[in-house]
Amino acid sequence: MHSSGAMAWLGDAILLAQSGAVSLIVNSPASVAAGTPEGDREAMIAAVVTLRRAADLLEARDDVDARRIAVVGHSFGAMMVAVAASIDPRFKAAVFEAGLLGMSIHIGTSPHPWAQGIRKELGAGLPRYLEVISVVDAAHYIGHAPAIPKLFQSAWYDPGVPHQDSLKFYEEASGPKEMKWYDTAHDIDDIAAVADRTRFLAKALGLSGAETALGTKTGRKAGTGHP
Description:
This protein is α/β, with parallel strands linked by helices and 227 residues long. The protein has one domain (6-218): Rossmann fold, CATH 3.40.50.1820. It has nine helices and four strands; from the N terminus they run ααβαβαααβαβαα. The chain has helices at 10-19, 37-60, 76-87, 103-109, 113-122, 126-133, 163-172, 191-205, 210-218, and strands at 69-74, 91-97, 150-155, 177-182. It has a four-stranded parallel β-sheet with strand order 1-2-3-4, with helices on both faces. Helix 8 (191-205) packs antiparallel against helix 9 (210-218).
């Protein structure tokens, strides 16, 4: 689940398909943009349900091993993945890209102009809004997630997710876990980041074709740093 829409994951999905996986790219069912507090809370719950329904669909396919399902999320999607992976035991690995502990934290404290605009728009209604949506914050779930492999990818130059928020997200999570940082902005889409999450998922899910797929994408021979 990607905050910029399903097509933002297309390159990753192709790489994973070339590695031997079946990928299902899902959209968030609704944007969270300071509608009513209850409406935005329900939109977040719907996003979690969407991820679980994706697992339902994958389980139903004859060409998918239901014991090897992973979930990947970016930004808003990373926070929803944190909830889904914590309550649904079918997910056996998870990648969290540009995430933090919750939308109430992001909207309530982020220096990003979008969050500042929401705070200004809500005015005196901000405290109640944050209270209502906070029940879906990843902070309530990520520490109780099963002991599945978790990769956290964060950006040094992310204008919306301060470094300390990225670190708190990682620190609150249950293990096993690892964190990697990249010289990018909010969209962590450089080749190093793509390669890291492809290799992570390949290892977690037992995919054999990742190095060949990555070699094709980068123009390098699999397993080497040379053309």
